[in-house]
Each structure stands twice: as C-alpha cells, then as structure tokens.
Amino acid sequence: MKKVYIASTSCISPQDSFRSNGFFDEWKPALTGTDQLHAIEPDYKSTITDAGKRRRMAHLIKMGVSTSLDCLTLADGSYLIPDAIMSATAMGGLEDTEKFLRCIIDNGEELLNPSNFIQSTGNTFGGQTGLLLGHHGYNVTYAHGGYSMESALTDAMLQIQANEINNALVTGADEITATEYEVMRKMGFWRSGRQMGEGSNSFLLNSEKNGSLCELAAVNILHETTPGQIANSLEDLANSNGLKATDIDLVLTGCDCDKAAEKEISARFPVTDYKQWCGQYGTKSGFGLWLGSQLLSRGIAPKGNQWEQTQLKSIAIYSEYRQNDYTLMLLKKDTD
Amino acid sequence: MSAHVTGIGVLSSMGLNAAENWESLLAKRTGIGPLTRLQTRHNVPAGEIKQTNEELAEMLGLDSKRTYSRTALLGMMAAKEAMNEAGTDPKKMKVALISGTSVGGMDLSEQYFTDQHEGKRARLRNLFEHDCGASTLRMANYLGIKDFMTTISTACSSSANAIMLADRLLNCQGFDAVVVGGTDPLCRFTINGFTSLMILDQEQCRPFDDSRNGLNLGEGAGFLVLQREANGHTPYCDLLGYANANDAFHQTATSANGEGPYLAMKGALEKAGLQPKDIDYVNAHGTGTGNNDLSESTAMSRLFGEKLPPFSSTKVYTGHTLGACGGIEAAFCAMMLKNDTIIPTFNFKTPMHELEVRPETEVKTNAGLKTIMSNSFGFGGNVSSLIFGK
After folding, report:
1. pTM for this one?
2. A217-332 has which CATH code?
3. Taking burial as the number of CB atoms within 10 A of a residue's CB, which of A7, A10, B187, B384 is the most buried?
4. A5-206: CATH number
5. Do the chains contact at B249 and A147, CB–CB below 8 Å?
C-alpha cells in the first residue's frame, strides 16, 4: 500500500495564515471578548483574477477556491493540475441557502434569484475549482457534518493507496452565518465560552515523499465510542502505524462538548487546543491538520505560550463531532 | 474482484418498494402527476410520494413525537428494504452506510422559516436536521450501522458517487457489506430553484424528444447492498466499473460536446476492462432538458459511434429525484439485469433535430442483457457513470 504525503497546504482562518508566516512568528493568544471568529480574508484579486467571476462568487466559494488554487500554485505561478479534487463542507452555501429560502417564503415563491439557488449547493466550490482549472478528473464533495473533512481525506487516501491516482487536492470550508450563530445562541451553545469560526483549508496529498511537509499516516473516524477510551485509541493509532504512544509528541485537540476528553488526553499526551485559533465549524479539523503539518515541517511545538524549535516525530489531531463521536488523524515526520 | 449487488431497496412515486416499482415500470405506468401533498404555487407535474412524513414515520415504527426530515425517512425505508433482502446484520457484520443527498433536511428548514414568517413559534429542532449529514446519521441510527458512515453531496450525481466510494471501501477496509445509495425529497426549495433556472417542464417530461422542454422533479430513495462475498445469495448483478469526471464547462449546464459525460463513460469502461461494444443498454441521465439530452447523446455518439446501444431514461416514471437518482436507477438496472428486460422511455415521438438518436420505446424481454451502464450528471460539472453486469 502506498504512503500518502502532504505536499502543500493553504489556509484561510481567523488568523494571519494565508500565504504568510505571520501565525508562527510569535505566539497568538486566543481571541477573547467575542464568540464569532471571522476569517481574515485575503485580497481575492490575488487568487481569483477574473473580476466578473470573483464578483459572482459567494463568501464560502471565494474562500474555498482561494485556498484550493493557492495550494496548487507552483513556483512559476502556474497551477499543478491534480488527478482528483475532493471537497468537504458541513453546511455548504448556507448564506445563499438562507437567502433563497427567505426569498421563496417572503415573496410568495416569486421573483426568485437563480444565483442564490446555484450557489447554495454543497459542491459549488469544488465544482468552481474544477472549472477554473479546466480539470476533467474526479471531483466529489462530502457533506457529512463534523466528519466531512475526514471523509474527503479518506476518499483521497484510498485512491492514492490503491495506486488509482498519484495526487489529490482536498479542501474543506465552512462559513459563519448570522442565522446559524443566532440559532446556536438560543440553544446556549456559545455561553460556555465556545466561539463560532470559519475558514478554508486545502491540502495537496501526494504519493511522492520528496519535498513533502509530512506523511498523513491515518484518518480514523470513530462512532459511538465508549467514554474514557480516547487515550487508548490514540495509543492504538500509534501502534498500528509503527510508533509507540510516546512517539506522539503533541495532540492538537478540537473539543466541542467534552472537557473530560481533553483532560483524559492531557493526562497521557502533550496537548494544545487548536480550536482556540479557528473557532467551531464543521470542517474545523482541516485547521488542525494544517497546523499539525506546519508544526512538523517547521520543527516547532508549543511550549508555555511560545513556539519552540524541537525535534518532532509525530502529531495527532483529535476532533469531536458530538458526544462520543470523534476523529483521529496522525501525521508523521518521515525521518528515514 | 467486483462487488456483488446482494440487495436493493427503492421508494419512488411509483411505489414504496422495489416490487411495486418494477411492476409499474413493466406496465409503463408513470408516477408523475399533479402535486397534491406539497404546498406550492407552482403548478408543475412531479413524481410525488403521497404519504406524509407522519405516515412514513408510522410505517417505519418511529416515535411520532420526534423530528425526522423527509430525506431521512425515505432513506430509512429504502435502505431497510435492501438490508432485509441481503440479510445485512450490523450486529454481526462490519457494515458501512454511504448516502447521497442534495438538500438534506430542507423540508424542515422550510417549515422553520415559514413558521417564522407567519409569526408562529418556529421550532429550533427543525433546523438541526438541515445539513446533509444529519439525514445519514438518522438513517444509521435507525439501521443500527456504526462502523462507518458518510454523505456525498454532488447534486444529481451524489448517489452514483456514493456507489464508487462503496466499492473502494470494500476493496481496502475489510467491510462485509456497504449499504449505499441516495435520498432526496420534493421540497419548495428545489421546485423554486429549478423554476428560477427555467428548466421545469409544465407538462410531462419528454427525454430525447425534439419537443422536450425541461425536467419534472421527483422524490424517493434507492439503496443497494454491496458485498464481496454473496454468502449463498444469488446476487442481482456485479458492479463492474465506474468513473467520475468533471465537465468543467459551466456551473449548471453541460458542454455541447459532452466532454465530461464522455470521459465518465469512457473511464467506467476502462475500469471494467470493457469495450464500448460490450454495453447492452444505457440507463441515461436523460432529464428531458434541452441541454442535458443533447449533450448526453453527443457524448454517447462519440463513445459508441454511429450505432448506439439500446438506451432509455427512466426519469419519465420517477421524475428527476436529484441526489437519489443514481441509487434509484442503479436499483432499476439491477432489476433489468436480473429479469433480462429493458425498461423503455415513453413520450418519445420525434428525434432531436440536431442529432437523431432514438431511445427504446417498448418493453423488451429476453433482451440478452449482460452488461449495462447507468449515467448520472450533476450541477457543478460532476458527472458519473456506473457499469453493472451479470
């Protein structure tokens, strides 16, 4: 079975993360005093050069297309055309969905704007990326709540491991909308210090090790698990990938509901909460994966409230979806 | 080794199980008619399932006080039928569920916004089913599937793409069975969406006819059980090949030369190790829009040459069920192979003036079917082709 490497990444997030080392220059404290972490958006002129197309794209699509194209940009400015494009979004074009729904209901099913309908479907940014690249290969979008990102990564890994393709672009994106925020507020979701976030994270996965950031060794999705088994699952993950539990130098966590989980993991592994920088959204684990791959390739890890140069072997990413449902991803720095 | 289709389940406006659907197909009896259940000002024919959500929930033995989206209810019923037939027991087997849907819990979201607009108490729980994955989670919970589940949303090719992932999971991850297909309900969102795109026919759709003037929407669900080992069952057929390609032409239209559809069909043949001449029948996407049918016919002509294999569109019976159509039509293909019978289209009189191709118009028994192809094309250029064979 072929190994899968992360050849390049691109990230739009509430942090200074797009085409920038800014995030890693100095330690960024968690943003406080707000329960909405909006993405720091790049100047889209630099990513989507056609003004007409740019104007017609919704917020989510601009983010998704931008990190996708950026991730594929070669040194000479041209794009690498990947064998396959896998996209992930928990909610799809939520803002356009809502606009179109309100238009239907408020206008009595008249005066409808088709562009809201077109941009509402989940596969819009994946389709648009294919369209802009003139890419005729495999193109699929996963929309499975908090597991969307992991589903897209799994599909890409299966095809690379089976030697069906050599590389794949995997992008996960979700956006903040006022209604979703408000609905969650009414449920008291933000009361306990949670913050809503948004962003887009792209990865070029490759069977080629040369020049890669790290190896993506595993993506595991676990449903209806027994409480208190997370640390053991992490150990199993290490063992089944030729590592010892102590080889996991850091676990990046994105907990939604379960403070007990963080406590359980931190009792056995060094832990850093990745969600403090990106907030809560369906494909947030993409941010965790971006952060993990960057730390491994840069050879830095959090120490106190600092980034510290250090030798790293592997990083795991733990992300919760709902109670007792979680995902684990494992990144390895190939040293051989 | 190719995957066996060991069970099927179908729900459409023609009937609530595979047998009812097959009987209706053989009789060339369409499920498309005037809307009576769904409240909308658009007076368009559609393939509507007449049971309400409450009635479906009762048939499934669900607690009527809990909230289920129509997407989840339709999916549960079809997936359950397929699992019963295949004898799939998630307690004893490693089972995955992959579902394709385009609108998720939209019927409940519509209810929420309608209640809010009318100043009624809008129930928040109606919004919790909104995302596509929520319907799959509900289904998995009902079906007792825990090992793996995911949801694909590539508009009208969602469930065809789900079937591809199912085969890859069977190849690599040691699953005993994958329950795979798609589900989509009729809702005001899609009726208004397709109205805004001006591609809904006000009359019954007429795929591949020169007078065609758009599609009819439909609702339903279609699921298969795919297994490596048939375990004593006589499978309907095997999944021999598949491919997904991107037309990369336009967000909602297909290219004139049918590049994406051509590449998908060609890729599926390559994956199956077959030649165009090996295909005995094509279940076309055949929506009845001016753009789709011409583009698809052009692609078929490019691939098959002057003499096309027999083909038809079963959307004249079900309407276009969007995310579900790949699953429903895969189940139809399984039944056609098992019964060695081609289900024709109807409403066909005059070939397209740009390209003269003629779909089958009569039921053909003892058709000599060994290998057949099923096409599904979606918004965003995501087009897919599956090949099933005996």
Report:
1. 0.97
2. 3.40.47.10
3. B384
4. 3.40.47.10
5. no
- Residues of chain B positioned with their CB less than 8 A from the CB of A223: 140, 146-149
Question: Does domain B3-389 correspond to CATH entry 3.30.450.20?
Answer: no
Size of interface A-B (CB pairs under 8 A): 182
Across the interface, whether the CB atoms of B247 and A155 are under 8 A apart is answered no
Dist. CA B201–CA B44, nearest whole Å: 7
Q: What is d(CA A132, CA A66) in angstroms, rounded to the nearest whole number?
A: 11
CB pair distance less than 8 Å for A143 and B378: no
Residue type, A25: D
Nearest to A145 among B117, B134, B152 (CB): B134
Hey, which residues does B157 pair with through a beta bridge? none
**Binary contact (A101, B110; C-beta < 8 A):** yes
Rounded distance, CA A255 to CA A238, Å?
A: 20
B301 touches chain A (CB under 8 A): no
Question: What are the mean pLDDT values of chain B's consecutive 10-residue runs (390 residues total)?
Answer: 95 98 98 96 97 96 92 98 97 97 94 92 88 95 96 95 97 92 97 95 98 98 95 92 93 88 97 98 97 96 96 98 98 98 96 97 98 92 94
What interface predicted TM-score (ipTM) does this complex get? 0.96
Q: For residues A108 and A136, what is the distance between their CA atoms, to the nearest angstrom? A: 40
Phi-psi region of B380 (alpha: psi -120 to 50; beta: other; left: phi over 0): left
Query: Chain B: residue nearest A134 by CA?
Result: B248
Query: A47-105: per-residue pLDDT in tens?
Result: 999 999 999 999 999 999 999 999 999 999 999 999 999 999 999 988 899 999 999 99
Q: B257 touching A, CB under 8 A?
A: no
Closest CA of chain A from B248, distance in Å: 4
Instruction: Please identify among residues 37-66 of chain B the ones whose CB lies closer than 8 Å to any CB of chain A.
Output: 40-42
Per DSSP, the three-state class of B96 is strand
